[in-house]
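Journal club prep, notes for RB
We'll compare a predicted complex against what the paper describes. Inputs for the zinc ion case:
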Amino acid sequence: MVDSALTANVRRELSKLQADLDALQTDNLRGQLERLNDQLSNMPTPASQFATHAVGGSMGDMQSTRPKEMSAEVVDSNPYSRLMALQRMGIVKDYQRIRDKTIAVVGVGGVGSVAAEMLTRCGIGRLLLYDYDKVELANMNRLFFRPEQAGMTKTEAAAQTLAGINPDVAIESYTMNITTLQGFDAFKASVTNADGASRVDLILSCVDNYEARMTINQVCLELEQTWMESGVSEDAVSGHIQVVIPGETACFACVPPLVVASGIDERTLKREGVCAASLPTTMGIIAGLLVQNTLKFLLDFGQVTRYLGYSSLTDFFPTMDIKPNPGCSNPLCPKLQAAYQQQYNSEEALAARSAAATAAAGAEAEAATHEDNDWGIEVVSDAGPAASPGAGSAGQQGGLAAGLQYSFPVASMDPYDLKKDAVEDSTADVDDLMSQLQALNTQS
Ligand SMILES: [Zn+2]
C-alpha cells in the first residue's frame, strides 16, 4: 500500500516538474529555477519515507498491527497456514515461538539478503540488519535486490522490500561498518539490553571478510552470544555454515584461516579489475542451509549441525565438529572454555543428560510400537552389509564418514590376499640378503 501510494506521489511530482521544464522560458530564468529547486527538495524519496516506517525505534505503529496469534487456519488468505502445518506434521512443537525471536543479520549481501527474506517469510519476530554498502547493478546476478534499488543502501532497500513482504516483522536497519572502532561500539550496543545481556537470540554472519567475522566473534565472546558463520568461496562453487557457541565450540579465532595464520593482510589480496565470482545458486543454497539451521536452533527440532560444508562441483556436504582451541589467540575464549567444562561436568548437568537419554530411549520404544499394522510394514536398517574396506565403493569406506574417500587405494584386508603378499621366512643371513639387494640394484 505504502509503496504504490509513494509511487503515485513521485509520479505526480515528476509530471509537474516536466510541465515546468516544458514551459521554461528564457525570461525570468532565475525565478523559475528557484521554484524548480524548491519542488525538487520537497520531493519525497521512496527510501527515506519508507525508512521512517521500517527502521528501528519507530516501529510502534507497525507493531500495533502485528497479529496476536499465528493462525493455523487452512485458507488461501492465511500467510502462516503452511508454516503452522509443521506442528500438525509433528516436526515442530510450537511454531509460534518464532514470533518471540530476534535475529541479527550482519551483511546484507548475496547470502544475508536471502537469509533475511527467508526469516521474514517464516514470520520471525524481529530482524536487525547491518551493512554499509549500497546496492549496485553488479549485484543483480544474485537474488533479492532489484535494479531500481541501485544507489540505495542495502539496509534501506532490504527494509523496504521485507516490510512489504511481511509487515508483522519488526525490522531495525543499521547502516554502518562494524569493523571501525565506532562501528564496533555501535554494533555491540545495538545487540545489548540495558542490563548488559544480549537482546538477540542469534547473530548470523553473512559478511565477506575476515575482519568483520573477527568483530562479530569479539562481540559474541563478550556477550556469550551464540552465532552462525557463513561463507561462500571466491570461485563461487563452494561454501559453508558454522555454529559458534562461546566456550563450547571453536570460536572464529581458535582456527584462523591459513592466509591469516601466515600473516598476510587480506586487503592486499584484492587486485584492481579482479573481483570474486558469485552465483545466485551457491549463495541461495548457503542462505538456505544457514536459515534451516537457524530454524532448528530456534524451534528445537532436528539436529543443529555445527559445521556443514558444500562443494558444488562434487555435490559433497561434509559435516564436522570443531573443538575449541585451548591456546586460542583471544584471551576471553579459554576462560569461557573452562567455564563450559566446569558446567558440563557438574552433577546437575550429568543428571540432566542422563534423564534426557532415558526420556529419548522411552520415546523411541513408544514410537516403535504400533497397534495396528494392516499392511505388514516392517522397519529394516538401511545400513546394508558392511562394505569391505578397499572395495572402492562410493559409500562408506572402512571407518570413514559418508562422502569421504581415500586419495589412494586402501590395501585389501582379505586374509587370503594378505597371506599371498606376505614375505616368507628365509634362512638367509643378513650378508646374503645384502648381496641379493646389491645384485638387484646393479641389474636396474
Ligand atoms: Zn577461540
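Talking point for the session: Residues 251, 253-254, 324-325, 328, 330, 333 surround zinc ion (CB under 6 Å).
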